[in-house]
Amino acid sequence: MKKIDPEDFRARPGKPPDLGKWPTLVKPLYHSQEQYQTALTDHIQQLGKRQSLLYASDTWSLLLIFQAMDAAGKDSMIQHVMSGINPQGCQVVSFKHPGPEDLNHDFLWNSTRKLPERGRIGIFNRSYYEEVLIVRVHRDILKAERLPPDLMDRDAIWRDSLSLHRESGEAPSPQRNPHRQILSASFERRTAQTVRKTHRRSGEELEIQSGRYCGAQVLGAVHEALRRLSRGNQHAFRALVHCAADGKANARLIVSRIILNTLAELKLTYPKTTPARRREMESIRKQLAR
After folding, report:
1. Contact (CB, 8 A) for 144 and 113
2. Residues 215, 217, 219, 225, Cα dihedral to 10°
3. pLDDT at 166
4. Fewer Cβ atoms within 10 Å of its own Cβ: the N or the C terminal residue of the chain?
5. What Cα–Cα distance (Å) separates residue 227 from each residue in 135, 166, 177?
6. Sheet with 179-186, edge to edge strand ranges
7. pLDDT tens profile 149-158
8. DSSP string across 164-217
């Protein structure tokens, strides 16, 4: 089994990635299907143990953001990598077309109120990054956001939006901003053959996701977002994993390793008890045993 170095997939602070030169093919990290299953199972079991520690310490939370084109493997990634997580300590949020209440607030309002609480893992299936990707390319969507007319055509709206994205990933502290953030981004052009689940999508959504707005324009928006987000003291781990080229199995191993490393960096410990508390618990156990 090849060792996985998360830094190989990181969009490093201060060094904006050139997507045209970003490696999109990684040799298999495993030698056989059996070895892959063993490695993934080990990662899943470790994640379960670290989640218990995260929950018990009740100091930090972890936010995982899966941002990608439709059919790029987000759902499958979440399903496989997080299969060993206790549902009581995890919350998954899928961001879809904004409703009337969302449109009456700024674009970060809905995601901010759904951040995970201390001790929990939060998963965003898509996120507020849509605002500087699809919305930036397909600007008709912007008209529904009820912004003042004099802001609609200004490039400053994207600069300001990206600044807010960047600030959301700045150095966290347990007192003010207790969540650590991982963004796993995967980019794959959606073709007519990959259009699925049409009963869940409107005509506009299908038009946008089917490829009409997914080419160089979206990649350009992605590159610009990563370029601006790489500035400053970034503590959010932003990883670029190409699920199609690297393979779903590779991608699952890479993402699970990134999550494990991030949790390890928090240096979590179980809360220390006191002699009085131990005596109390022993008394309770004896009463229950009667």
Report:
1. no
2. -160
3. 65
4. C
5. 18, 11, 24
6. 90-94, 121-125, 61-68, 179-186, 237-240
7. 777 666 777 6
8. HHHHHTBPPBTTTB-EEEEEEEE-----GGG---GGG--HHHHHIIIIIT-SHH
Check if the beta carbon of residue 190 is closer than 8 Å to that of residue 123.
no
Whether the Cβ atoms of residue 121 and residue 52 lie closer than 8 Å to each other: no
Instruction: Give the residue among 81, 1, 94 at the shortest CA–CA distance from 48.
Output: 81
Report which residue type is found at 86. Answer: N
- Alpha-carbon distance of 51 to 85, in angstroms, equals 7
| Chain CA centroid to CA 62, Å | 10
Structure tokens at 128: 């507020």
Looking at domain 6-289, what is its CATH homologous superfamily? P-loop containing nucleotide triphosphate hydrolases (3.40.50.300)
| Bridge partners, 122 (sequence order) | 63, 91
The pLDDT score that the predictor gives to residue 271 is 86
Give pLDDT, residue 170: 57
What is the predicted pLDDT for the residue at 239? 82
Provide, for the chain, the percentages of residues in helix, strand and coil under a 3-state DSSP scheme, each rounded to the nearest 5.
50, 10, 35
User: For the residues of 222-238, what is the DSSP string, one character each?
Assistant: HHHHHHHHTSS-B-SEE
Count CA atoms within 13 Å of residue 10 on its CB side.
Answer: 20
Catalogue the E-assigned strands of the chain: 61-68, 90-94, 121-125, 179-186, 237-240
Listed by start position, the domains of the chain span 6-289
Q: Which residues of the chain have pLDDT under 50?
A: 188-213, 233
Whole-Å CA distances, 84 to 22, 43, 75, 80:
31, 9, 15, 9
pTM of the predicted model, to two decimals?
Answer: 0.79
